[in-house]
Amino acid sequence: MHEALLSAQQGWGEYAGTYRTNLVWVGTDGYSPRGAAHVGPQPELIAGAMADLLEFIERDDLPVVAQCAIAHAQFETIHPFADGNGRCGRALVHAILRNKGLSRNTAPPVSAGLLRDTEDYFAALTLFREGDASPIVRRFAEACRFAATSGRKLIDDLCEQLDEARADLYGVRSDAAVWRVLPNLIAQPIINTRYLQKTLGLSKPQAERAIKTLTERGVVVARTGKQRNVVYEHRGILDVLDEYAAGLRRG
């Protein structure tokens, strides 16, 4: 996971997926751990600590949200890598949720819920390191509730956009290529003929006809003024996604 996240980061390729070999600390300058909020374990202890963490993650006798919270907090406490621990720790949460069956088709924005109040989040991590896991478990429960609520609204809003587009396309032949393009706009609301050919396997004439229909019916609009390689967008879907992202930031 860490290798996948950092392998393309400039200057970090050789460290991706490799445990750190130096001491790390959080909450002070980079010169000394004096006064740090947390000092990670010595490098020689990392492998054993991670093995213990993985054994904990594999347990199936715990409430999954609580298990996620404790696993995440312990990972951040071990701080096993020289960089990318935050990203990897958040990705770990989604991997556990997927592995335990709580999420199947998408990654709910649990991390965004966690970071709505960073001060409270870091305070909960500190209390965990002092032996009290309750605050971080509560933060995760709240984050999961936020993720479920905001995710459900996103799905409803996107479905509404598709329903409106279907209404706009009323009367178009049922075997027209445009119907294959329409649901794909959720994942890719910005398209061109080349994209439709490559992704959906449409011929160039099919892709051109589909975009022509979508444009004439007002489902998509041209994003560029170029005569060639014109890019088209579904403004409604983009607005929904922008509002969703803004809501995550606002909390």
TrEMBL record:
The keyword Nucleotide-binding applies. The keyword ATP-binding applies. Gene3D superfamilies: Fido-like domain, Winged helix-like DNA-binding domain superfamily/Winged helix DNA-binding domain. Residues 1-142 form the Fido domain. The active site is at H79. Keywords: ATP-binding, Nucleotide-binding. One of its GO terms (molecular function) is ATP binding. ATP binds at residues 26-38, 83-90. InterPro entries: Fido, Fido-like_dom_sf, Fido_containing, WH-like_DNA-bd_sf, WH_DNA-bd_sf. PANTHER family: FIDO DOMAIN-CONTAINING PROTEIN, FIDO DOMAIN-CONTAINING PROTEIN DDB_G0283145. This is Fic family protein.
